[in-house]
Design a protein that fits this description.
The complex is a heterodimer. Helices cover 68% and strands 0% of the residues of chain A. The longest helix of chain A is centred in the first third of the chain and has 21 residues. Chain A is globular. By secondary structure, chain B is an all-alpha fold. Classes of the chains: A mainly alpha, B mainly alpha. At the A-B interface, helix 2, helix 3, helix 5, helix 6 and helix 8 of A face helix 1, helix 3 and helix 4 of B.
Chain lengths: 182, 173
């Protein structure tokens, strides 16, 4: 019995190089891999749900437009998150300081314990607001740690800071958020 | 680094299922209110958006993205061409201005040069002449050159061929 061929998954580096060489399928694959995570990062940072698609596309557009700027010190996703954070900041400025964060008005799911669901949603909204209210570096380090599991060295490279400073930002964020959701 | 800090550093790996708590870590977590609160926070942050967001249609997103990138490239190419034409037009205008300015400068400078030459060339022998004498002198200077050839062609016929060749050779240098 012959072994089935192992299909190698191209790395983000390989896909970025392929896109730069003109392969648009490589861009599509990078989008497939990272767009959902960028959307969740933006949502967690306080973006309104109905704006997520536009913001994700804007972040991806900026990233691919200056793909040469990604030198691989941080992962492609961490680099995308940093760009997405800039997109959100620009959106906030465009609105001349009006808070981007929306208090979501979601329908309650039809479940056995609607009170528990409501409580969970309230906790989630409180957490989103708390994350959105953090100073930028605290917010980004916290989300890169908790949603991507990034190490401090990689996070520091993505955000242009030092690993020690990234650690301090993370612990400040955790302290503030713990107080908020208690 | 104490146990709480060690546990805090491990939380992202465990929440992303890249690792699991060891029995010692699990025991610490169960008995430490601060670590438990942080762990619940990390779990909640990890889950943010999972229920609220529907996964984007990747093919639609990438199609829109590629279309936008193509439009951007075309726009930048148009802008480059526009800048090139603008640069070329500016350069042509600069050359034209330089040529016109140079021509004007030459036109203006010519009488000045003549005037300076008139003022500076010393001809003391003319100083004592009357106006009529100066006119006569000027007329003789202005007489057509063809009528005052210094070559006395009438004498050439008296020379042999060899002598004539020597004369021509002397003229040609």
């Amino acid at each position: 019995m012959s072994a089935s061929p192992v299909l190698e998954t191209p790395s983000d580096h390989a896909l970025a190089a392929a896109y730069r060489a003109g392969d648009e399928r490589a861009a599509a694959e990078l989008v497939r891999r990272h767009a959902p995570a960028v959307g969740r990062f933006l949502y967690s940072s306080g973006a309104a749900r109905d704006e997520i698609d536009d913001l994700v596309q804007e972040a991806l557009f900026r990233a691919f437009r200056r793909l040469d700027g990604w030198r691989g010190e941080a992962s492609f996703r961490s680099w995308l998150f940093a760009i997405a954070s800039n997109v959100l900041r620009d959106e906030y400025r465009r609105r001349k300081g009006r808070q981007v964060l929306s208090i979501e008005d979601r329908d309650l799911p039809d479940r056995a314990d609607p009170h528990a669901d409501l409580a969970a949603m309230e906790t989630e909204e409180r957490l989103r607001q708390g994350i959105a209210s953090l100073p930028r570096l605290q917010r980004e380090v916290f989300l890169l740690r908790t949603q991507q599991g990034g190490g401090y060295v990689e996070i520091a490279a993505a955000l242009g800071t030092t690993p020690g400073a990234a650690r301090v930002h993370y612990h400040h964020a955790v302290k503030r958020l713990k107080e908020l959701i208690r | 680094m104490n146990d709480c800090e060690r546990l805090s550093d491990r939380m992202p790996d465990v929440v992303l299922h890249r690792s699991e708590w060891t029995p010692e870590e699990a025991a610490h977590l169960a008995g430490c209110a601060e670590c438990l609160a942080e762990w619940e926070l990390v779990l909640a942050a990890r889950a943010l958006g999972e229920a609220a967001l529907t996964a984007p249609d990747s093919s639609a997103v990438s199609a829109a993205l590629l279309r936008r990138l193509a439009e951007d490239r075309a726009g930048r190419a148009r802008a480059r061409r526009a800048w090139w034409f603008a640069g070329a037009a500016a350069a042509a205008a600069a050359i034209l201005v330089a040529v016109m300015t140079g021509r004007d400068a030459a036109t203006v400078a010519a009488p000045q040069v003549v005037a300076e030459a008139e003022a500076l060339v010393p001809l003391p022998e003319l100083e004592g002449l009357e106006t009529a004498q100066l006119d006569t002198l000027l007329q003789s200077i202005d007489r057509p050159f063809a009528g005052t050839s210094t070559l006395d062609a009438s004498t050439l016929g008296e020379h042999e061929d060899g002598e004539l060749e020597q004369v021509f050779a002397a003229w040609e240098g």
